[in-house]
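Fold it.
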Amino acid sequence: MRFLLTILVCANCIGASYYVDSTASGSQDGSSWANAWTNVTQCTGLSAGDTVWISGGSAGSTNTYYLTAYWNPAAGSSGNPITYKISPDIGYNGHVEFEMSGTGINFLGAFNHVTISGDAGDGNRHMSLKSGDHAIYGNGANGGNTIEYFDFGTREKFFYWNTGAGVTMNNCRAYKWQSSAKDNIIFTYNTTEAAYDSIVFTNCFFYAPRTATTGYGDDLAKDMGTGVSFYNCYFEGYTTNYVYGQHQDGIQWLRGNYGKVIGNTFRNIGNYAVFCEAYHGGFTNVVVANNLAYIDYSELQGTTAPQGFVIAEGAGYISGKGTNSFFRDVVLANNNVIDYGAHKAFSLTPAGTGSTADCVFWNNVAANSSGTWTIHSTVSTNYNVMLDTTAAASAFTTYSEFGTNDYTPDSADTVLLDQGGNLSSYFTDDITGATRSGTWDIGAYEFGAGGGDPPAEVVPTAVVGTLRAL
């Protein structure tokens, strides 16, 4: 599923424009570029629907804005946010950098109905955060927020959202450095029941450290809560001299309902790509579909830890909550697990005397990943395929172990191509956004869509440790 953000503009919603430029020397009332405020903390008198244009200097240059405490931007109203955005104007469309002074300071605290955008119209991220502890620390019923085209750099934690909902992170990027105090890069803890897509991450890139020869490393996303969605994001575990005792998961979902993990890529994750653990009880209305998990680091495949997509009761559950839990309307479908060797690719089962209702395990592919699947007897199970390396080379357009591959079904294939079941009541497209039609193909990629390993982005040299060549 390709998650698209739609912005609606109406005539009576367009507010006033204001300007921020760190180099301005005029009256600093925000009324024009010449008289711009020199920092976002000077913005006053804003109303819902207003736009604050922020200068990044000329193309290729950077304007830096220094903050000594949380930035709490002025709030808009429901459907009518205040927007803080890089200017697309020539001479102002360079790069906006925020720098926090001191230690233990976070970038964003309380904010409601706010859009912060580094989108200058060229597809690049024109905003970044140079320093600070947490990038975003939300604790309250915040709502109606969008942060997009923002590079949050390297830090202990990128996103901490304790309660509340109503935030979308679009086309952002963050790198985790190892820390004894912070063992994940994204943490959401929304225990209030929420609808689908209350907290959304879409088209984002996340990296976290792990060891080379064990499953230990920092989690990329953890706990989650209700109403959290990940669409079309990229998760990678990078190799370093990791020294702490955390087992690395791409997404470790301990609690909550109404969750979606659709169209994402998980590369070289030390432990589980996705682990819906049922630590605090069962799951209801969860979709894990159209995802790709692959290993191209041979040392990792040889460890005892990696597993693919697992929705199961964890060994560490809270007594009386996770044990013998109940799963309802959980879908594990059209996922690819590639080159996990002897490790388990899929699981969908509560433990003990737990049960399921209306759960689906369809159209999944495990290639060169021969570990035994664990699927509860009450789960609807159809059209799932396990391929060895020879069969994978025949079924996919191109395949070799640890290679740069194309996972769309080959035009002559008879195992994946037009061999799946229709799940259009849950989703209608593939990992690339191509519409599934007719008899569905098995796996994350529909024939003709193009299913190569997605390109990873260049990782800053400031990241502690080393990454595989990208």
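Residues 14-155 form one domain.
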